[in-house]
Amino acid sequence: MRPFDGRTILLGVTGGIASYKSAWLARLLTKSGAHVDTVLTRSATEFISTLTFEALTGRPAHVGLFDAGRALDHITLAKTADAIVVAPATADFCARAATGQADDLLTAVLLATKAPVLLVPAMNDHMWAHPQTQRNVQHLRGLGYDVLEPDAGMLAAGEGEGPGRMPEPEAIHAHVGRLLERGARSQLSGRRVLVTAGPTREAVDPVRFISNHSSGKMGVALAHSAWRRGADVALVAGPLSVPAPIGPSLRTVESTEDMARVVTELLPSADVVIMAAAPSDFRPTHAAPHKIKKGQSAPTLALMQTPDILRSTVAHRRPDAIIVGFALETTNVLAGGREKLRDKSLDLIVVNDATESGAGFGVDTNRVTLIGRDGSEEILPLMSKTDVADAILDRVERLSHGR
What we know:
Rossmann fold; single chain; alpha/beta
């Protein structure tokens, strides 16, 4: 999985009860294709064993700075790491790292590495709020370390639900991916990206609606891929059938008109616009104010067209913005895509056939053709929507170069 495949991640584990989550993080990183080297502090081994991490990663776990035959481990580990994540990072560890100490293997590695570092504090809420801890965190950020804010939630031993809880491994995994992509100097780093996702719903009455089979998987994958590459991502989503991605800001909408309004609001600041949503094309002329009861004959619905969101953006786009559209067709697929590319003045259109097995709505895979403004066509094989998203963002990055 991009960007983990073949990369070496050093996972540092310090002595906190949240270290039980570190085991799952090690598993997630390994499943994503990374080589995971684990360094535990002595106090961490009071909570979790090295054997756990060796079983999950298939690689040795390290503890002692002065273990026999391991005198240069801190240099070797520091040089081979593509990224370092310390999770959990206790208050004591943050204090020692902030003052540049190297009294154990993990702090020595931090001083010796040039790899990007992510620290994930986890501690009692009073310890997190203490002015000294906050000064240490501010100093660590000033040194160039990324520090992930702790979550608010139930703490150990019934100590309440204040901020101090270690974020879930899936969230940390996402931030490690962003850390790795940052090193690749993405063209999207620092850019503002607007993505739409999912279906919209048009009310028939208070309990019924017109919609389509879109799950939002493709748009969510695109939003996450853009965020992972360092972009500031706004995701405008109708009702999703999948969890919202970690990282992007989320604006939820219901109807096509709602989506059009939010897109218009966000459009002036967008460097890249990716319209992956499947808004409803029609809505009832009048929505009944009360539930329509069953009668002897079914009611007749009069329909009218909803706003064409993508066409409505033409007059309001930034001149240098990159605009990507989607065309889900059932007949004359490529011809329909080319017509939409011209009609809506797009830089790139993503075309796929709704009738093809493994493509379209509700599935985890897609087979698409990318058609550029210059007439170029790139046919992608059937692949996961995550990989399709990365292929689309690769094209967007090439288009971004020089803009």
